């Protein structure tokens, strides 16, 4: 049997209207229509007879148009309705005289000359606005209008339309908001009661409106309080559904089994600690203990480790991996790019020294191997790496996501560490589980992008969170400045001098550009999120932004400006061996200046690099700049970051750059960043252009609601994981799972 909300719209509306809803909004059922909430509400005054209008009132009147005139404010001449097109560029005033049969009222509209063709004499309409007087004539200021058809002129219909608040729906020309409003009214009127996904008890405890009542009040509010309380209810519902999905997922995770990898003593980890050239920070030590405790459990760990750029996440991860190796298992380190995977492989090998030289001359007594597996290895190297993984000879394997897709087998995979990567979702987890038999590996996800708590609770809702807040002592501060190249060309010259001076002191420099520049037409390259796509040569002349500065352009210019320095370029479209070779030479100090795209954004660690020049810095996001900047000031050398831009002072983009230059506090910057972005972006949904099923809930603003809902969801799921006792909630959760919600939960 179908519940009321699952019934088809065409049972309620005409077949044509129902079809339009399906085509334009993808709405087919009563439930879907009722969840098409108003975008906002139009506030009207009370419906008032003409002779009762009082100065200063917000009022609505119903009347007929008596006379319309349009006048140009530029040429002062009157414009006939059929000439409006010719005066398109003029500022205009349209005066409409309206009558109720006895009294007149005047309305003035600015720059809407086309109204003259709609409000023709004789037209019946509602008008609303503030009552004012001009030269003894009563006027409505800032008037709104709604034209009435002749069949709308019943008193009841006029009353209805003159409601104090009118819902405005996300609408289109084919499906205007008035049609949506009328349809919703029809559907609501024929709906007795609806099953509420929020359990009665919780409605009462949280003082929330029931579903039927809330639907009425969100679509047809009488007062502001109506829509307020209705929205509060729907926000809670969205949070509850989302948190129920997450609570169920946690329950599933908790029911999975993993091999406990308890910390043992006298193994590789102790040997490693003994040769560590520095003390762990307090934070690192604490987080390691959290991780060891997780690893010792019989259920898989799912932990998010967040920490500023340079906070030392790698050591934490390596200690966790070694602990797993000590207990007889293997660990994988997944990196988002080949450059980074290669870099990690080197870092780990170097940090481990002889501990990574199992079976080799000079290897320590107790040792393991660190394998590298990326998509671009040649067949022989690949075979060897796969063999090491499958035989267990490699205790640690570093690689890109190719590692997941491939037929790579492990002897005993115990831990997966995912670096700088938010897109590690349920599917990838499943892929990895299959590599370790019935036992699911423990998972540690690392990120340098600080994530607000509510986002961690939603997008990363099934991960426990650890945070490294302090930077290791002795880290050199980074100084950042904005270089306004257009206003102060001399500053840019000075910047290049600085580069030369730094190189003179034996340091190295990154120059980062938003674009590769090898193919202007197809510039939307893999790193080039901000790349300009396909501009014509004369784009700038047409007022379009010029294409972003490219690696190849800069390389050409610097050939001259920095003649004599050893320069190389690096970007995502170079062949893998070449990328690798360039990075190796840079790390070895054989390259002075590296001109690169954002391939160097994450993880690259060359302590001798002191300076970074970011070209067209305004084309990067705040968090991205912060990430990039983290590549310098990693050693004893003080870091310097120069943000070169053509943006003007006090412009939005310049403000962002000033913010980046003014602080190195990643959490502060991520707050600024989030404020400047829309909700969808935060969830990573807007980019893919998808709808989310979050309509009213904001993961940034509605922290309290999310906390409460999380608590409620946990208590429901802990006693009734299948929601057998909550059929309505189960139905809504299921449809949310089928819709885009899961897409973002899993893919973000
Ligand atoms: P991130 O968190 O950005 O990945 P890394 O793990 O790459 O940071 O660490 C940055 C640098 O700091 C590395 O060179 C690392 O060896 C060093 N480092 C890590 N922990 C400490 C510490 N406790 N004391 C001093 N230096 C450290
Ligand atoms: Mg790192």
TrEMBL record:
<dbReference type="InterPro" id="IPR033454">
    <property type="entry name" value="RecG_wedge"/>
</dbReference>
<dbReference type="GO" id="GO:0006281">
    <property type="term" value="P:DNA repair"/>
</dbReference>
<dbReference type="Pfam" id="PF19833">
    <property type="entry name" value="RecG_dom3_C"/>
</dbReference>
<dbReference type="Pfam" id="PF00270">
    <property type="entry name" value="DEAD"/>
</dbReference>
<dbReference type="InterPro" id="IPR014001">
    <property type="entry name" value="Helicase_ATP-bd"/>
</dbReference>
<dbReference type="GO" id="GO:0005524">
    <property type="term" value="F:ATP binding"/>
</dbReference>
<dbReference type="InterPro" id="IPR027417">
    <property type="entry name" value="P-loop_NTPase"/>
</dbReference>
<dbReference type="InterPro" id="IPR045562">
    <property type="entry name" value="RecG_dom3_C"/>
</dbReference>
<protein>
    <recommendedName>
        <fullName>Probable DNA 3'-5' helicase RecG</fullName>
    </recommendedName>
</protein>
<keyword id="KW-0238">DNA-binding</keyword>
<dbReference type="GO" id="GO:0016787">
    <property type="term" value="F:hydrolase activity"/>
</dbReference>
<dbReference type="GO" id="GO:0003677">
    <property type="term" value="F:DNA binding"/>
</dbReference>
<dbReference type="InterPro" id="IPR012340">
    <property type="entry name" value="NA-bd_OB-fold"/>
</dbReference>
<keyword id="KW-0547">Nucleotide-binding</keyword>
<dbReference type="InterPro" id="IPR001650">
    <property type="entry name" value="Helicase_C-like"/>
</dbReference>
<dbReference type="Pfam" id="PF00271">
    <property type="entry name" value="Helicase_C"/>
</dbReference>
<keyword id="KW-0347">Helicase</keyword>
<keyword id="KW-0234">DNA repair</keyword>
<dbReference type="GO" id="GO:0003678">
    <property type="term" value="F:DNA helicase activity"/>
</dbReference>
<dbReference type="InterPro" id="IPR047112">
    <property type="entry name" value="RecG/Mfd"/>
</dbReference>
<feature type="domain" description="Helicase C-terminal">
    <location>
        <begin position="491"/>
        <end position="675"/>
    </location>
</feature>
<keyword id="KW-0227">DNA damage</keyword>
<dbReference type="InterPro" id="IPR011545">
    <property type="entry name" value="DEAD/DEAH_box_helicase_dom"/>
</dbReference>
<feature type="domain" description="Helicase ATP-binding">
    <location>
        <begin position="294"/>
        <end position="468"/>
    </location>
</feature>
<dbReference type="Pfam" id="PF17191">
    <property type="entry name" value="RecG_wedge"/>
</dbReference>
<keyword id="KW-0067">ATP-binding</keyword>
<keyword id="KW-0378">Hydrolase</keyword>
